[in-house]
Design a protein that fits this description.
The protein is α/β, with parallel strands linked by helices and about 475 residues long. It contains 15 helices and 15 strands. Helices cover about 45% and strands about 15% of the residues.
Length: about 475
């Protein structure tokens, strides 16, 4: 029996070197035990049987290495043994990872997904508190991860908050940034984390502005560590008071009797189809939250998926989320979104009845001090994200898709499509979908000349009016 002792819970290099030596010595998974240094059970471990120096080499799919680097951060104490068993089997069955139903493959994949989900939660839920003032200030946060993700998640915070010194304290390990490099120290108790400070009100004000009384994305166990937690109950009560007031103001006179139509098989089927489409969108949103199809997820705060009516006749496709959208997790909530809302209203289109999304679901930017400057997505990034647009399109099945901006047009039409040459007219796509192109609202915001801005805004509204007319014409034809 071989007893392998790793340096830490996240010692991937140690596991890889040991696993390679074991495999080259033909040591079966059943003849290996794995432990972490300082583990209490290590005191009772039998004497280690030395390995012969490994001879030869072997290869495994690159996907396995990527999967193992993430899955090894899971808290499952059997992860080291499970990974070695999968490695052992891959030597004989190189395409094993393609069999999603294989128990080992399924378990490792689920572990890696759980780790990525926990990393995403850390990116989204960490809240810094300021300790000290002015030049001597330091920003400290407390987080309780489900898995060993601190070292994995820390580079994101170094990029996102590069201009401020910070520390993220956790029970496992603490991460620190001094403006030049990230360092790690042993974990601490929650009692060492700072209490409320003057940033609390900022978080509460921001949260109140985006509060949704039916939201369910954030696990309850995280609320107690967030400054906005104190706002939840008052905001919910406020929503309930508003709903009660609306009910109280409802007419007390009985409604006029209306002819009641007997339910038909067709209407039942339509209702069921609408429900399934809504479920599809929710499932897509959850799936996209863990998207790693391109590198943009590494720097963005979160995936910004589409939202709106699941039976929408119009699907508006923008280019990518901006800074405000990246933080809020919702499309078109920043200045460009406000411009879009105004233009839709003037065009006679109710935004509540359209579906709004972006061709690229993660914010691409260049940091400039405290500011994150928008950067145009490239073709590989657009192609990597196109799967989500296609699946949204299949779930929504709109009568018309409006591509706003060059990136959106490239995604919708599957190729680079000039805007001015094609804008303002419906185009039939190969799959039967009708589409239009126009400018992106942010283009209007960037125009320096007031006259040009007013002129281009009118053209943008006119494009949206054409979209509305196309829908009315389709409705009459039906």
């Amino acid at each position: 029996m071989h007893h392998i002792i790793l340096d830490s819970e996240t010692d991937f290099d140690g596991w890889r070197n040991a696993a390679r030596a074991l495999a080259l010595n033909d040591v079966k998974p059943s003849n290996v035990t794995w432990r972490v240094a300082n583990d209490a059970s290590e005191l009772f471990a039998p004497t280690h049987q030395p390995l012969e120096p490994p001879q030869g080499t072997f290869s495994v799919p690159a996907r396995f290495v990527e999967l193992a680097e993430v899955a090894i951060l899971h808290r499952n104490p059997e992860r080291f043994a499970l990974l070695y068993r999968l490695l052992w089997r891959l030597r004989q069955h190189h395409d094993l990872l393609e069999i999603a139903t294989d128990p080992d493959v399924a378990e490792i994949t689920a572990m890696a997904k759980a780790v990525r989900s926990d990393e995403h939660k850390m990116h989204a839920l960490v809240r810094f508190r300021e300790v000290g003032r002015e030049q001597k200030s330091h920003f400290v946060a407390w987080f309780e991860p489900e898995h060993h993700i601190v070292e994995l998640a820390a580079p994101f915070f170094a990029r996102r908050f590069a201009d401020m010194p910070w520390s993220i304290l956790t029970p496992d390990v603490c991460a620190h940034w001094d403006g030049h490099a990230v360092s790690f120290t042993p974990g601490v108790a929650k009692s060492e984390a700072p209490t409320a400070d003057r940033l609390e009100e900022t978080w509460r004000s921001y949260y109140a502005s985006i509060f949704n009384p039916v939201q369910k994305e954030m696990p309850g166990k995280y609320w107690r560590n967030l400054p906005e937690a104190s706002s939840i109950k008052p905001l919910i009560e406020g929503a309930e008071r508003t709903a009660s007031a609306m009910i109280a103001k409802a007419a007390t006179e009985p409604h006029k009797p209306q002819t009641r139509l007997e339910p038909s098989v067709e209407s039942d089927e339509a209702s069921e189809m609408a429900r399934r489409r809504a479920d599809d969108i929710e499932m897509l949103r959850e799936e996209a939250a863990d998207c790693r199809a391109c590198h943009l997820y590494k720097h963005a705060t979160q995936t910004v998926f589409g939202e709106g009516q699941q039976t929408a006749q119009i699907m508006l496709v923008g280019e990518q989320p901006g800074d405000k959208e990246d933080l809020a997790g919702k499309p078109f909530v920043g200045p460009a979104g406000q411009m879009l809302d105004r233009a839709l209203e003037e065009a006679g289109i109710d935004r509540r009845k359209v579906y709004v999304t972006n061709a690229v679901k993660h914010f691409k930017f260049v940091p400039r001090g405290k500011i994150r400057l928008h950067q145009k997505p490239n073709t590989p990034e657009i192609k990597a994200c196109r799967q989500w647009y296609e699946r949204e399109l299949a779930a929504i099945r709109p009568d018309l898709v409006v591509a706003m901006g060059a990136t959106a047009a490239q995604s919708v039409f599957g190729k680079i499509t000039p805007i001015n040459k094609n804008r303002g007219r419906p185009i039939d796509l190969d799959d039967g979908t009708r589409a239009m192109v126009t400018v992106h609202p942010s283009y209007l915001l960037r125009l320096p000349d007031a006259d040009a801005k007013a002129r281009e805004y009118r053209r943008f509204v006119q494009d949206l009016k054409i979209a509305a007319a196309v829908l009315r014409k389709s409705a009459h034809a039906a």
